[in-house]
Design a protein that fits this description.
Shape: extended
Mean pLDDT: 80
Number of helices: 14
Radius of gyration: 28 Å
Structural class: alpha+beta
Helix content: 25-40%
Number of strands: 13
Strand order of the largest sheet: 9-8-7-10-11
Length: 395
Amino acid sequence: MRIILKDDIPVYQPAHRLSFSENQDVNKQIDEWLEQGIVRPSSSEYTSPIVLVKKKDGTTRLCVDYRRLNRELMRKGIVIIYMDDLVIPAKDEKKGLEKLRQVLEVASKYGLEMKFKKCQFLRRKVEFLGHVVGNGTIRPSISKTITVKKFPVPTTVKQVQSFLGLTGYFRKFIPAYSQIAKPLSDLTRKDNPFMFEQPQMEAFEKLKKLLTESPVLSIFQQGRTTELHTDASQQGYGAVLLQEAEDGKLHPVQYMSQKTTPAEEKYSSYELEFLAVVNALKKFRTYLLGNHFKIITDCSAFQKTMDKKDLVTRVARWTLLLEEYDYEIVHRSGQRMQHVDALSRYSVTIITSDTLTARLQRAQQEDENIQNLKSLIGTNNATDFLLKMKYYTNT
């Protein structure tokens, strides 16, 4: 590896003081590395301090704090791949042993060594990168959910950012994550004062609750019936990718949600629905490209828009993005899309039956007081009422 520095001024940092026991651990490790030819004595003017890190088994890991030196490096555009943990998936024991043999043969050929006590073989469930994978499902690891559960109420912007970073890593498990987290993410804006009030507390507790309830996602399988359900509103848009499992039912593979930008809030309803589909396809491209799937939407204008020849520039550009996919569009009424509707309008979701809604509308249309109220609202003299879901409510 070739390292290029910004200048030739040596980066020197004094060593950290260590205890007697820590010194013994360091000397033992260095002697072992010297014997193996991994390190050699150096007379360089560049020095960085040693940092000892306690491992789970009680032993220590010798690390070096290179932060100061890293600031003096010339950055490269190419990412150097670093491989640490290795997982070998297989459908059954026979296939697992066959793959294991192949991996060990390659490791032996190139002189790669593995620590036996860190290895696990023929496991039906394994923890990997903060997730528990097994039996065709994936869920957040218990250690991560405990961290979320015990997270203290943030008192600074930095603590809010830390909490959002922790929960955001698992956002694919949480329907409407962006909308739920909005009161918290708004606190991280430079122009907003830090005021942790009821909306922020509700969002904080809601995210903790959702992640500690052990949400489960299915692992995507090639060739299975796949559906992409989308919905949009002025507040945001969302989608859920589902696949039919062995039980014949559709199970979620991953969720997506996004707040609308100030510019997107001005889009028409069908443009927002189109935007939801386009961004969902971008998000789930690795799953959907090359596979046939259904796009389920409650926007009847979506298909009509696809058939038009004279499209506005923005929509025409979006239609080009859809051409590389093998899909069919299925319209489904809004009452049957409540599961994805929440992703786009979390804060205003109302679930009612068709019968109840119709009865309320009919009763209010026949009520004399309601009609007088409607006339009053129409004159713009009333500010305490609004029309919602075609029937009136007091705000």
